[in-house]
Amino acid sequence: MPDPRIKNEEQYRALLEKGYSKQKSARIANTPDAGVKGGKAKPYEQWTKKELSVQARNVGIAGRSKMKKNEIIEALRHN
């Protein structure tokens, strides 16, 4: 039975099969535009710190308000 809290159930299941935790799979599947492909995003280094903070909030990274720009980038890449 699909979980109503998961926005992109198909992506959530695929991430679980890849070995991601339930929590991380849910965070990724619930981000805006989850599962949408396009490859048009600019590299994180070209984002403003505010844009990075919003993205970090969307994927559930804690402590982002105290991080420097390069620390947020690192957290996003290894989340």
Automatic annotation (TrEMBL):
Write down the InterPro entries for this protein, in alphabetical order.
DUF7218
- Any Pfam family from its record, for instance, is DUF7218
| Annotated segments matching region Disordered | 20-42
Would you say which domain of life the source belongs to?
Bacteria
- The protein's name in its UniProt record: Rho termination factor
Identify the species of origin. Answer: Flavobacterium hydrocarbonoxydans
